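Notes from the 1:1 (GR / supervisor)

We went over the backlog. Supervisor wanted to see one worked example end to end before approving the batch request, so GR pasted a single chain during the call. The sequence is below; no edits were made to it. Supervisor asked that the structure be written out right there so they could see what the output format looks like.
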Amino acid sequence: MNRRNQTVAFFMLLCLPWMAQAQLGPVECMPEWGQAGWSNPALFHPSGAQIWLGGLAGTQVLATHSGPTFYDFISTDGAVDFDLMLERMDSVETVGLRNETPLFAFSFRDEDRFEFRLRSRFVAEQQLSYDRDLFELGWKGNGHPDLIGRPISFSDMGLDAQGYFDHSLSVGAMVQEDKFWLGWGIHILNGIGSFETASFDATLTTDSVDYSLGLDGGMVVQASGVDLDSLIDGGQAANLDMGSLPPTLGAGVAYDFGFLWKVTPKFAVEGAVEGRGSIRWLKSITRQEVDPAQFVLEGLDAVALLSSSDSLSLPDSLPSMLETWADDMVDSLTSSFTVQSTSDEMEAFSTPIQETWRLGFRVRATESLEFSGLVYRQFRFDRRTDGLLVGMTHRIRSNVTTHIQAQYRAQRWSFGGGLSLRGGPLRLAVSAQHIPGLIDPLDAGHWQGQVGLGFELGYKRDKKKARKKGDPRSGKGMWH
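Structure output shown during the call:
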């Protein structure tokens, strides 16, 4: 890869580490974190205005694994139980990574009537799906009684990855005095690279009579910004001049919608749809296909091979048998398993971005204590995950906010927390969606952390107005 491709290669490499199961974090529940207004545009930030710049705005790295953790099948003394691992795996598992790098964010609020938000960020995400049968085949072998004669399908395996810029505009407004708020948002998406396994249909069968192997199926992979012909050599990114921004290879639009309804002075209901849209890849597109009629391997007939070999009683019969076996295997792969691929240029394809649906409630128990709960459904590529979250937020005066939460998804609990500190115009916020994953990563299938530093204005004015109106809020979060 030449030096002119370094910028694009950098962004594409962000997609290449691990991403999978859905998870919501404290930043999406705490209005003090500006992210809450993007998760539900009807939620207002407690300050009059906020400015977040570059990576300080809250760079986020999320790594997930839907399968069993290390301690599910490895004891503390290092003993590995593969049968237990297979027992605790679903038919399809996923691993992956999502990285969000903010460029800037800005918001302005007119009391509780109106809030305007503008944000730009870079998102890189990947999802690798693997089949449980692949590990069972590797552990037991194709000659195991459980596998002989049983078609083993790997059709759920695949890799999806993409990197894109997300430029967003969001507006929240009060439509009924101190009762009901609505929010809308739009995302302008500029794609810089994508890779997709459009289809992968492979089935391996061991014949129960002669123990020969049969493999058939088909495959289609497509990409934008990566030359699939040179992928084995590291991939060839799209050309660009040194020092310029990566070219826009795809474009798309996504939408947000949210509401907040204060049923009583202490109880509110909220709901939102975030990120409903996709990217259509239009440039630097390559596609590789393997026709199902050509994706066929009729393997070695073990019974015939053994019957035609020299007698095993002879001293040199075993090396001779192995040599014959190896030669026949090479002949089988070169003649029976001929893979012919085709490439189609400039044929567009689309990939979805992360989409989240949520519905929940907020209960203000005291002036400083708030309880929340929600159910959600999240889509990443072609995978869907449902979850349940309950949390508690404690606000100490107007400058310290803590949040703890418990979340259930994919038959597993996770426990997260966040801390937000404000001193003058500066706010520092840190959070983790699953704290045990940071403390003991071998016993967790989820790792995530986020930290941000921003500038906020308008607290002093809001506090004075609240006192005049007799509102005990005094700038402590956004409670309508």
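Supervisor's comment: The first strand starts at residue 49 and ends at 53.
Batch request approved.
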